[in-house]
Amino acid sequence: MPYTEAQKRSHIHEIQSYLYTLATQDARIPTVIPDGIYGPETVRAVQAFQKIYSLPVTGEVDRPTWDAIVAAYRKQTAQPEALSIFPSAGYVLREGDSGTLVYIVQAMLNDIGSRYDNLAPVKVTGSFSAATTNAIRGVQQVAGLPQTGAVNRETWNWMVAALNL
Asked: Each residue of 55-90: pLDDT tens digit?
C-alpha cells in the first residue's frame, strides 16, 4: 500500500507536536507550530534537536531521530506509574492463551495501533492468536523491548503507559 500524502502530513504533524512540547522546556529547540508541513521551521527544530542529542545534523527525520524525539517527548511528559493489574511479575501471556486478559490486551493493541501506522489491528476475540503475537512483536519493537510476541509485565506496563499519552 503506497504511503499517502495524508499519512505523510499526519506524521509530520505528529513529530512537530512532539518538538513543540520539547521546545517548551528547552529553549535551544526552536518552536515549531504543528501544521503538517515540513518547512524551514521544522528543519531548524529537527536540526537543533539532533545537535542536542548528538545525532547527525541533517534536518531530516530518519528512524534514529524519530525514536530519539519520541523518547525525549515521553520522558518529558511521563505520567505517574500506572496501576499494575497484570497478574504477577512472573506471569506471561502468550499465543494459545484465552480469557478476559487477552480481550484487554487485544483492545489495548488496537488503541495503540491507531497511533502507529505500522501496527496492524487485531480481532478482539479473547484468544491469543498468531495475529496477536505479531502485533505484540510490533509493540515490543516500538518500545525497544525483546520481541518475544508474549506479554510479560514489562510489555504490559509499556502498553498501559502508551495508552496514557
From this structure: 999 999 999 999 999 999 988 887 665 555 777 878
Contact indicator for 128, 98 with CB cutoff of 8 Å: yes
Contact 76, 132 (CB under 8 A): no
DSSP helix/strand/coil, 151: strand
Taking alpha carbons only, the member of 79, 140, 139 closest to residue 115 is 139
Spatial distance between the Cα atoms of 150 and 133, rounded to a whole number of angstroms: 7
Measured in residues, the chain has a length of 165
The closest of 165, 81, 98 to 132, measured between CA atoms, is: 98
Angle at 138 between CA 133 and CA 139, to 5 degrees: 95
Q: In the structure grid, which three cell numbers stand for residue 96, read together?
A: 494459545
pTM: 0.51
